[in-house]
Amino acid sequence: MRALVVRGRGATPAVEEVRLPAPGPGELRVRIRAAGICHSDLAMVDGTLAPAYPLVLGHEATGVVTEAGPGARLAVGTPVVLNWAPACRDCWHCRHGEPWLCAANTAASVPRGETAAGEPLQVTLGLGALAEEVVVPERAAVPVPPGLPPAEAALLGCAVLTGAGAVRNTARVAAGESVAVIGLGGVGLAVLTAARRAGAAPILAVDVVEAKRELALAAGATDFLRSDDTLGKEVRARTGGRGVDHAFECVGRAATIRAAWRATRRGGAVTVVGMGGKDDLLSLSALDVFHSARTLRSSVYGSTDPDREVPELAAALAAGDLDLAPLVSGTVSLAEAPEALARLARGEGARWVVTFPD
Ligand SMILES: [Zn+2]
Ligand SMILES: [Zn+2]
Question: What's the 164 CA to ligand 1 centre distance in angstroms?
Fold first, then answer.
């Protein structure tokens, strides 16, 4: 089968023929219908997440079970959304209601399958979903209703789950609270959508790219602001001079975490959704931390339990209560995926989704 493979840190990904093993005990083979291209894929290519190579990219996808290994319970033909952080249900975090921090999910890549030349192959976050097929543990496949639009269903596995969870579970945004969202990639747009569903107002969308304005308004923002030195002033002008109740940082940089901090009111909360680098240091004065009375926290995988929340989001999508169309910039073939990755790196569009013919 064919997969999008990156050969080493900084190399240009290319489509290759690869081989996966047959599903073992408790594993499934899933034929991929659609797979989104996420910022974390760029972090796999540039080495920020320190995966091993050669590596199949992709971790946000939907597909159909085509083969079940011994003991696997999901039937062939079941539509699923893939979960890149399947909970073991047995570690300390799982037993204490924090499955998103499961101790079993710490590897950026795991070995699975081989290249056409017989070299050992790695797959991203246990999935490697930018591929015609994956072989995954059954707990990494969440069953969903049939008939969902594939490109939108794929996003339930990363961007939408993360954005919805950050708003609902981590920040617990209430109706009428004010929100700012900094960084309008797939996750940032999903945060806007979730903030609108939560009844937040105003919802201020912030990005350096003016071209994101229309996308932001379509996804749920009430205002679009350019990210520059006047941001704090612009935010306060729209929030009674105070700043927002909740700021969401969806970039993963110290500079934008600081911008989110400054855009938040005294006593408000900053939720860091973007994943940054280990050398990018955040500096806040001790006086500011005390006097502002703000909360700074992160949201890993939206603080969600995907086994419960992916089906809820899938049901909302099926019922027409969740409009994800603004998040999908376009669909491309697997052969076009390298160019779509380059577009993502340039900040063009929201989510590019690779779709596969039936
Ligand atoms: Zn992702
Ligand atoms: Zn666990």
Answer: 13
Instruction: Looking at the structure, tell me whether residues 261 and 329 fall in a common domain.
Output: no
Q: Which ligand is nearest to the CA of 273?
A: 1
Give pLDDT tens digits for 275-315: 998 899 999 999 999 999 999 999 999 999 999 999 999 99
Nearest ligand to the CA atom of 302: 1
User: Based on the structure, what is the number of domains in the chain?
Assistant: 2
The alpha carbon of 127 and the centre of ligand 2 are apart by a number of angstroms equal to 17
pLDDT of residue 349: 84
Is residue 148 located within the same domain as residue 203?
no
pLDDT of residue 207: 96
For residue 59, the model assigns a pLDDT of 97
**3-class secondary-structure state, position 59:** coil
Domain that holds residue 152: 2-158+304-355
pTM of the model: 0.94
Mapped onto helix, strand or coil, the DSSP state of residue 244 is strand
Question: 162: CA distance to ligand 1 center in Å?
Answer: 8
The region that residue 53 occupies, defined by phi over 0 for left and psi between -120 and 50 for alpha, beta otherwise, is beta
User: Which DSSP letter does residue 222 get?
Assistant: S
